[in-house]
Amino acid sequence: MHSSKLIQVGRRLAQALPSVFGVIVISFILTRALPGDPAVYFAGDMADKESIEQVRQALGLDRSWIEQFLIYVSNLANGDWGVSLSTGRPVTEELLARLPASLELTLIGLTLAVAIAVPLGVLAATRPDSWVDHICRLLVTAGVSLPTFFTGLFLVYIFYYLLGWAPSPLGRLDILYLSPPQVTGLYTVDSLIAGDRETFVASLAQLILPATTLALFALAPIARMTRASMLGALSSDFIRTARANGLSGRVILSTYAFRNAALPVLTTLGMVFSFLLGANVLVEKVFSWPGIGSFAIEALVASDYAAVQGFVLAMALLFVCVNLTIDVILTITDPRVALDD
Amino acid sequence: MQRRKFLKTLGLASSASVIPFLKYLPASAAGRSDTLVVVSGSGINSLDLHRKGTNRPSYQVTVNIYDRLVRFGVKTLEDGSMAYDSTKIEPEVAESWTVSDGGKLLTFKINPKAKFWDGTQVTAQDVKWSFDRAVSLGGFPFVQMKAGSMTKPEQFIVVDDMTFQIKIPKPSKLTLPDLAVPIPFIINSKVAKKNATANDPWATEYLHKNPAGSGAYKLTRWDPGQQFVYTRNDDWALGPKPGVKRVIVREVPSSSTRRALTERGDADLYMNVPAKDSKEFKEGGKITVSGAPIDNCLHVLALNLNIKPFDNVKVRQAIAYALPYKDIISAAAFGRGKPMFGGKSVTPSDISWPQPFPYDTDLKKARALLTEAGFKDGFETTLSFNLGLADWQEPTCLLIQEALAKIGVKVKLDKIPGANWRTAALVKKRLAMHMENFGGWLNYPDYYFFWAYKHGHLFNSSNYKNPVVEKLVDETLHMAVEDPLYNSNVKKLIGIAFRDVPRIPLYQPYLDSAMQKNVTGYASWFHRQLDVRGISKS
Predict the structure, then answer these.
(1) Which of A254, B86, B96, B432 could serve as a FRET partner for B365 with CA atoms 20 to 30 Å apart?
(2) Is the pLDDT of residue B29 over 60?
(3) Inter-chain touch A47–B266, beta carbons under 8 Å
């Protein structure tokens, strides 16, 4: 049983290889197709034609695309993702420094969203058209229609600027704190490991507003999906049978209905998580969060090829991992789902 | 400040050693009065200005942690703001200098008080190594050194430990001021050489992350994408002792957040404030705004002479008469621009630069000129602007579009992403009508003309070509300002710019910074970066 599952996971990973290779090719071509010219950009403000050519040669951009691609792929095979031109540091180092910041924010935001959205969706489904259902609708509509930068700025304005309750929106830690010694890269976890309660509280305080902003945005699809799939499950035959057999409402709801409804919710969760991780650039900007999204945007603006490609590749790998994890969880929750197709 | 009851241990040290600084100090105490918190829109990406790809915000690191042979003085403007003085050159590492051989040999005596952070003497060998590096690594440093007639290592001569010479091919007024710009900074060559490799003889890898200088501040912490911290070098003896002990520069990308932090008092200084915020800070009265017009810089509407009908001087003049100058200054620059229109005479009366051009909004004249040029019913064209500078360029372009419609010129707006801008506008020079904002570091009109009016030069995005201008600029560029010909040559150049208008100036922009009332000593610099050495906090 266990070994067969392992083989299935391995097969899944093997299936991801062609798509990862495709991502490498496409991100390589797309970055080169960008209209910006990195040689011009990195030659600096006063550079003339001669110095631009010097920079082009130094960057290896005077070679043909095929040559550049082969160099890139062989470097990748050796674990070398290249050096970001604008920061002068290896792309892997850069991504590893920023990924935990994004992960921490996304995980907390998502947990918050799930904690609100799932019960809300379940309640709304059990009591259609009641006040709970209306609140659910309102939250979902607000979450979908309010742009995140607006929600973010609005929260900053109310809770930082007017009330002064929230700490200054200055990234992961307020100015006068030192980051905890790195273990996981997640400040909340690292400060607990170091036993530094004060830094833990400070880093948590910094997280509240941006995580709320993210949660407001993320809870809409989760709540909607929960409500819809619960409605579907509750109206199915096996629930009717369970009711007819006199099972208690709680058992029906949690054991039979929710377990069956969890499938699409989990799938949605995987999608929302991957999306939030790379796409919350606006939240990062408003809260000065040193995340992976703003790094990607800066790299894109500067036509920093290695950094853009590294970001796309990292996200692709992450997508593969998240989807695989979700798939494995699905087979555990629902025996009808098998890993092989 | 009430909510922050305690200050946390503030260890300001590089990765190696963490020095505990304060533990549980009430916020009201001295904890912050010697610490300056600066918020800035974009972060630094290198500690080495000679490296390829070092971004503009990183220039400030070089300014604060390294010394140069000489520096510019500071002057107080009419409104009480302070700004650098391009006419005053003061000693820094060089305690004195002489010019000989008919202006072709500059000899610098090095100040015995100039010491690197490791306590060793700054010597002529260090200066030579640093200058050799600036001309050898190519790219921007090379171009900037070339502006001062310095292109080859052979020009830099070590006479003895404390005497350094620069030989230039012909006398030039630009060499000395070019030594005060950020590029020719002096590196501790012993430390750098120790970390150089065969592939990297100039230690670019090392100096990118590890500063090795003699400046008034040391860089003690750098978290890329978040913040960096300067700590005062208490042994620095090349000028008045800097007022603040520690400067924390935080990267805050959103301008709304920067503004909120400043208004709440959590940031002491906000560098490079957008014109709209600076106007509202001024009106609010709680925050000091200090700013000066940027020397030798103009926001212009450039017309591409390679694209019809802008090859016709009458069309260019017609457009210069049709622009809504006053509206642009009030609505796009929020009043933070010095007018460059409404000049009295078509021939300049003096050589001040920039100075108002002899055009003003006059639609009648504009229509008459267009009719004369054969475009009675106007024409269609595109107006391009840089999305990276959309905060002022977009409203400006909208106003221009509206105004030109009145004389029958139909303008289509073309937004170009910041990364593509330089290629399109400056390198390929393919944009018909576009915005341009060149500013010269060396404050001489002929230097501006060299970059923006000579054919093929980077900032001449109009493809303007005039043999008289070519000859005049070449003649004047290195000429001393005392030369009897200088005045008349510059006047001629400005007169031609008035008449031919390949670039129509809209206004001279301001560089504004906002700070708390207890911050003093801030000055605007030509490099548009923060020089913390003069700042104090009470």
Answers:
(1) B432
(2) no
(3) no
